[in-house]
Amino acid sequence: MRSKLLFMSCSLAVGLSALSAHAFNVSGVVRCSSGRPDFGATVSIPALGLSTTTDSSGAYSIDLPEQAFKGKIYLDTSTGTAGLSVKGNGFQNFSVDDVNQFVIVNFAVAGTSCSCVIPPACWLTGGGTISDDLGSPHYSFGGVVYPGCSPRAAGGGNWNVVDHVAGLHFKGLDIIVDQCCGGPTASPPVNVNEIDFHGTGIISGIGGTPLGVTCVTFVGHAEDHSESGSGVDVLYIVVTDCNNPGTTYMSITGTAGAACPNSPSPFNNNGVLLSTGNLQIHTSGCAKE
Question: What does pTM read for this prediction?
Answer without folding.
Answer: 0.60
